[in-house]
Amino acid sequence: MALRQASRTEAPGFGSDLGQNVRRLDLLMIATVPLVLLAVFVLPVATLERFVFDTTDPTLLTGYTAYFVHLEWFHLLGNLAVYLPAVGVAYLLCILSGRRRLFRITFVTVLVAFPLVLSAMQLIFPRERFIFGFSGLNAAFVGLASFALMAYLASNISDRADERHAPVFLFFVVGLVALLSLPARAYRFEIGSAALALVGLYLGTILYRRGRPTLAEFRAATDRPGYFELAGSGFGLLVGYPVVAFQDAVVPQGGVVDVYVHLLGFSLAFIVVFTFVFLAEEL
């Protein structure tokens, strides 16, 4: 197996490829979320508080609306600062790996179904909590980006990569989240170490079966301006997300990061996407 080699005469450049694949409808879909979040934010605070999800008094309405509610500018801007790169990178990875339909289906599914699913899962814990903010859905878009990154690598960077290897990114992010964010009483070290050990096992198995990449293959991968940088951006998103999004500093004053809903949103989205792709191919 070898890294994909494509000269400028054999394939369009990155900018040209991007121009051919970006669609106005997709950009409109992506832009709709910030507009909705901003429109909701300007509602009176008393109205917004009625749409917060209270785990001791749950309703179907608040189970959905809570994820679009922000009570402070800082909280809203923080979620938008995560949403734009997460969805933007996921979109670029998808359209440049032939997965536009996957992006659209996942995007709609996250916005329509995930709020109710995440709220229902919150009821597992009996203690009183108030849930609001878009961060759980942001986590789901990062889950999509995790799968899309492997699809992009397989399509544009290396023949060694395969979409079936995408769980390596799932375990990588879970390991980072565990080590950086879980309290010690939640077996932080054990969970993080186990997840990262699975990453090492995955990579070791791939290298054992397909051999180590040569220097010439590495140079061929890096000699594609734009394509290699986008892959780096995708990996940077997976590394940066646990560092940025799981800190108490990004939530309203007096609140704490709900590690559970973040991790659930990320993992559930990845599992749904991964399962959908391979079930669809079997049908």
Describe what you observe in this structure.
It is built from 13 helices and 2 strands. The chain has 283 residues and is an all-alpha fold. The chain has one domain (14-282). A two-stranded antiparallel ribbon has the order 1-2. Helix 6 runs antiparallel to helix 8 (135-157) and helix 9 (167-181) packs antiparallel against helix 13 (259-282). Mean pLDDT is 87; it is low at 1-10.
User: Which shape, going by the Cα principal axes?
Assistant: globular
Number of strands: 2
Q: How many domains is the backbone divided into?
A: 1
**Strands ordered across the widest β-sheet:** 1-2
Number of helices: 13
Q: Strand pairing plus helix content: what structural class? A: mainly alpha
C-alpha end-to-end distance: 28 Å
List the helices and strands in order. Answer: HHHEHHHHEHHHHHH
Task: Describe the secondary structure blueprint for this structure.
Blueprint: H1 14-21, H2 24-41, H3 45-49, E1 53-54, H4 60-65, H5 73-95, H6 100-112, H7 114-122, E2 130-131, H8 135-157, H9 167-181, H10 188-210, H11 215-222, H12 227-245, H13 259-282
Antiparallel strand pairs: 1-2
Helix pairs in contact: 2-5, 5-8, 5-12, 6-8, 8-12, 8-13, 9-10, 9-12, 9-13
At a glance:
The chain is mainly α and 283 residues long. It has helices spanning 14-21, 24-41, 45-49, 60-65, 73-95, 100-112, 114-122, 135-157, 167-181, 188-210, 215-222, 227-245, 259-282, and strands spanning 53-54, 130-131.
